[in-house]
Specification:
Glyco_hydro/deAcase_b/a-brl; globular; seven-stranded mixed sheet; alpha/beta; 283 residues; two-stranded parallel sheet
């Protein structure tokens, strides 16, 4: 009753036509309508995800990732993955420091260009990062433009996917900087993320990458295929912040499609209580 009385007092006018003493003000209609609209959007988004999960034959609806951290975690080279002079070079890492039950999906190369995969990922609202090699991407630059238009970050995986430690510094720089140029020319952005082919690198690799504007060199802790997973860690488990690798491949290589791979990936992470987050939000 006191709260009601105070509210009424704050809204009343005195006998001279002025306002009464300041007090708690009633909620105005516009904020209330905005709140209702936001709640409606959330319900609609959830309904759409439920329908998409059913349409794409998932066992469960994928979990929604928490908001990105206001303060980004400090990214350092994984122990044992450093090179001489690492402090000033892009770190090679396999996971992001976090206690949240999230993982990051990354997809390499660019061989398979399945339109249904783009629809599936858009409808399910699953974020991922694409590490591209020009010798495969150039077959259809437009496919990856559609991917970019859906909010996917296009990152660097060299021009020709060579074994980089077998090349000179100058040759490595041409492979990495050349792919930087391709992505900037075709897609308007110069990447800050680079993944060395096969996960192999040396000090020259990271020096060349830095000279081309690369800030991070994420590799992976797990790899997912159309019908199974491979693990880096001895416990063969997913951990908070793990980076998961897969490839743009199809039935010729896997005996399954990109869509089969997505189901394999999402069914496992969802069953274990993990959501898929956007890697760039944590860097």
């Amino acid at each position: 009753m006191l709260a009601v009385a105070a509210l009424a007092s704050g809204c009343a006018q005195d006998s001279s036509g002025g306002r009464g003493a300041a007090g708690p003000q009633p909620l105005q209609a516009p904020p209330a309508r905005a709140l209702d609209a936001y709640a409606s959007e959330l319900r609609a988004a959830h309904t759409a995800r439920v329908a998409a999960a059913k349409r794409w034959n998932l066992e469960k609806v994928p979990l929604t990732a928490p908001p990105p951290p206001a303060k980004k975690p400090e990214i350092e080279a994984r122990e044992g993955f450093e090179v001489d002079g690492q402090k000033n070079l892009p770190p090679v890492f396999t996971s992001v420091p976090t206690k949240e039950k999230i993982v990051f999906l990354t997809i390499d190369d660019g061989a398979e260009k399945d339109p249904a995969f783009l629809r599936m990922m858009s409808e399910l609202q699953v974020p991922y990062t694409a590490f591209l090699s020009d010798y495969l991407v150039k077959e259809d630059y437009g496919y990856f433009k559609k991917m970019q238009d859906r909010g996917v970050t296009l990152a660097n995986h060299t021009l020709n996917h060579p074994y980089l430690p077998g090349l000179s510094y100058a040759e490595q720089k041409r492979e990495i900087c050349g792919m930087q140029d391709v992505i900037e020319r075709r897609y308007g952005e110069r990447p800050t993320l680079f993944r060395p082919p096969y996960g192999n690198y040396n000090r020259d690799t990271l020096r060349a990458a830095r000279s081309c504007g690369i800030e991070y060199a994420p590799i992976w802790n797990e790899e997912v295929f159309a019908d199974h997973w491979d693990y880096r860690e001895w416990d063969r488990e997913i951990h908070p912040g793990d980076i998961v690798l897969t490839h743009f491949r199809g039935e010729d290589d896997w005996g399954g499609t990109m869509r089969d791979m997505v189901r394999e990936f999402l069914d496992k992470v969802t069953a274990e209580g993990y959501a898929v987050a956007r890697l760039e939000d944590y860097l």
